[in-house]
Specification:
By secondary structure, the protein is α/β, with parallel strands linked by helices. The protein is built from nine helices and ten strands. InterPro entries: Universal_stress_UspA (IPR006015), UspA (IPR006016).
């Protein structure tokens, strides 16, 4: 497997260039086509206005504004992609809310690059749970870029957070093009349980063998985490300890409602990530 089409979300965020630079690196290394996707439709709550009165005129003005905003943002994307030396790239505007538009584009892409929501930003054409929505409904892996992250090469030291779940298996398969180029791939199992349902008799060994048969040299680390720290923060701490520049993991192995209500690993990573994360549901 290799990436042939990499799509990146293009919006008015001040973190856009870092996101495009990362997408450009992945596309350039894979000799893939890069698609910059801007979304011009309003978020769902905009339609709560009176569309038969003043709201209708307001919607027309809003659409014109968003078209102009998309053109400006895509010009920034084009300049960054060209500067990064991406041989094949294109610009695309989808007239829909960002979550729905990105799910549409994801059907025709191998990898979708999106930004971690910045709490200091509130893009007008973006639902508050856009990342979670796209993760759950796109059917494609997401490469999530932290808003505090500054552009640098990724994929040299990769931590694969393995729990034996279907979501983690999807993420590992989706990450193969990146893992093949890594200097170090560490399969990390947190609080492993020996048994037939997930980890087997030697936790991490089966997925390590799978990766080795794909030509990827790996090491396995088993981390035992006490009650004083949750798994999500333990993952981020361990990633920092080994100098990982990329985390690969499954997203929402439990029901999303349960994670939002009770807290969970996916919610912690989406909120507190410090390095890019390739996540798949």
């Amino acid at each position: 497997m290799s990436y042939r089409i990499v799509a990146v979300h293009v919006n008015e965020s001040r973190h856009l260039i870092e996101r495009v630079n990362l997408a450009a690196q992945v596309a350039r290394d894979a000799n893939a086509h890069l698609v910059g996707v801007a979304c011009s439709g309003p978020a769902d709550n905009y339609y709560m206005a009176d569309l038969l009165g003043a709201g209708a005129a307001g919607l027309s003005i809003y659409r014109d504004f968003m078209q102009e905003q998309c053109a400006t943002n895509l010009a920034s994307f084009e300049a960054a992609a060209d500067k990064a030396g991406v041989p094949f790239f294109e610009k695309r505007v989808i007239e829909d809310e960002a979550g729905i538009a990105l799910c549409l584009q994801a059907r025709y892409s191998d990898l979708l690059v999106v930004g971690q929501p910045d709490p200091d930003e509130a893009p007008p054409a973006q639902r508050a749970d856009m990342v979670e929505y796209v993760l759950m409904h796109s059917g494609r892996p997401l490469l999530l870029v932290p808003y505090a992250w500054k552009a640098s090469a990724i994929g040299k030291t990769v931590m694969v957070a393995w729990d034996g779940s279907l979501e983690a298996a999807h993420a590992v398969s989706a990450a193969l093009p990146l893992l093949r180029n890594a200097r170090l791939v560490q399969v990390t199992v947190f609080n492993p349980e020996v048994g037939p349902n997930a980890h087997g008799e030697e936790p991490g060994a089966d997925i390590a063998l799978y990766l080795e048969r794909h030509g990827i040299e790996v090491e396995v680390s088993r981390q035992h985490v006490g009650h004083q720290i949750d798994i999500g923060n333990a993952m981020l701490s361990h990633a920092a300890d080994i100098g990982a520049d990329l985390i690969v993991m499954g997203g929402y192995g439990h029901a999303r409602f349960r994670e939002v209500l009770l807290g969970g690993v996916t919610q912690t990573i989406l909120r507190s990530m410090t390095v890019p994360v390739l996540m798949s549901h």
